[in-house]
Amino acid sequence: MRKPNFTFIQALLWLTLYLFLVFYGVQKVEDWASGITSATIYVGFYLMAVYIQSHWLFPRYFKKNDYGFYLVLSIGVLLGIVILRMYVEYEALFLRLRHHRFYDFTFQHFAFVFITQLLASLFGVMLRVAFDYVALLQRQEQLRSQQIVSELNLLKAQVQPHFLFNTLNNIYALAVAKSDQTPAVVAKLSDIMRYFVDEAPRDLVPLQNELTFLQNYVELEQIRLRFPVNISFEITPPNPQILVPPMLLIPFVENVFKHGVDKTTPNNEAVIIVAVTPEKLYFQVKNTVFEDSKGRWRGLENLQKRLNLLFPEGYELRTERENGYFVASLSFSITTVSTP
User: What sequence ranges are listed for the domain Signal transduction histidine kinase internal region (predicted)?
Assistant: First the structure.
């Protein structure tokens, strides 16, 4: 939540009130000196009543549950301000400017000053309540933002251990078999680990970096398979200014190797499509499924939670089976960074 500029708003309101009282006074008595003097006195004492109440009496005594002392002190301060204002108006408007006898020490004068100063004091209370309410909303918004960041980090972190566990198992199997592919797998894992360390902690990364990470992951998974998956990439050349949340697309590709591969046959296919418009990114993974495949995407719930946090204004996630293929597609609004 953007913090309002209360100082500017208050200054503008007080200036508006002052100008209104000046023109009202001048129009009433047809005398600029009297109009300006009376408006200055009014606004000056209103300011005194409002801010004594909002910045001292109410927060110091009422909010600390000292209601009795707050009430007595508020009445005392109010009467003091009323008497002081009556004296100032008597001296300035009645004696020096020889204005209306209303400003003499009369009951009508006292009643008018008392009521207007009481209203100003009540306005001070409402002003303090408004300050506290906005501060409370800001704290709640800050806590919500911190909670969202924590949840995103947790959901993001859940991807890494699972992936590393599988990869280390693959490297172990290759090492036991004394495979010539072991060094290549370790090098590819090093590239992916660098992405985890350098890119994954960020809120947004260039789309090209995310796609490179996906391709490294695919190559790493392909090495361990007896019959590698026939994967084709259909990628619109990404704009280097497009940014996406890191590790957002990996669950789609990971699902291919978890549920879309039959290790006993070479008939494994997958298509990864990335298309970008000026406003949205469209991502789709289409892979073969088999009759004995459970077809259950266990990472879907995790992914949906993260998408709900990242795109509260909406996204589109679809999963379906069609003609022996499992199709998962995602579209969301993209962020671009302007070049200097």
Answer: 151-225
The domain of 32 spans 6-140
Q: State whether 79 and 185 are in the same domain.
A: no
Residues 100 and 235 in one domain: no
Q: Specify the number of domains making up the chain.
A: 2
In the block, tokens 């110091």 appear at 60
Across the beta sheet with 230-235, what order do the strands follow? 230-235, 269-276, 280-288, 325-333, 316-322
How would you classify the pairing of strands 269-276 and 280-288?
Answer: antiparallel
Report d(CA 286, CA 292) in Å as an integer.
18
Same structural domain, 210 and 319? yes
Residue 93: closest CA among 106, 83, 102, 80: 102
3-state SS class at 221:
helix
Please indicate, yes or no, if residue 172 is contained in any of the structural domains.
no
Q: What is the pLDDT of residues 27-76, one digit of tens each?
A: 776 678 878 888 899 999 999 999 999 888 888 888 778 888 889 989 99
Both 330 and 183 in one domain: the answer is: yes
Contacts 24+ apart (CB under 8 A), 221-227: 221/257, 223/170, 223/174, 223/181, 223/184, 223/185, 223/188, 224/170, 224/173, 224/174, 224/185, 225/261, 225/263, 226/263, 227/263, 227/264, 227/265, 227/266, 227/268
pTM score over 0.70? no
Q: How does strand 230-235 pair with strand 269-276?
A: parallel
